[in-house]
Amino acid sequence: MKLAVILALVTLALYCSPASAEICKNFLNVIKALFLDTPSSYQATLEFFNPDADMKDAMIQLKSLVDTLPSNTTENILKFTGAVIKSPECA
Question: DSSP letter at 2?
Fold first, then answer.
């Protein structure tokens, strides 16, 4: 669970970074798939970035961990992410 929270916070940092005027939409798809899709759909989403075997394995492990989170935790992480993205600080 700690790893999922860390990933969510890193994602938020990317969204709000002054250096990233626009987040890569395909990366956003990966994050959405991490929390909402099936493992096979998530793996297909990862393929857009051509990860090597080690990266792919790490991301699959992360998906396995995220899938163990209670649904209300996942919902709250997504709500928080949405609130931060829509905040004036990230606009």
Answer: H
Closest CA to 34 of 70, 1, 60, 6: 60
Residue numbers of the domain that contains 53: 2-90
What's the half-sphere exposure (Cβ side, CA atoms, 13 Å) at 5? 6
State the pTM of this model: 0.70
- CB-CB contact of 23 with 15 (8 Å): yes
Number of structural domains in the chain: 1
**What is the domain-level CATH number for residue 57?**
1.10.210.10
pLDDT, one tens digit per residue, over 42-64 is 999 999 899 999 999 999 999 99
Rounded-to-integer distance, Cα 46 and Cα 59, Å: 8
- In whole angstroms, give the CA distance from residue 54 to residue 76: 30
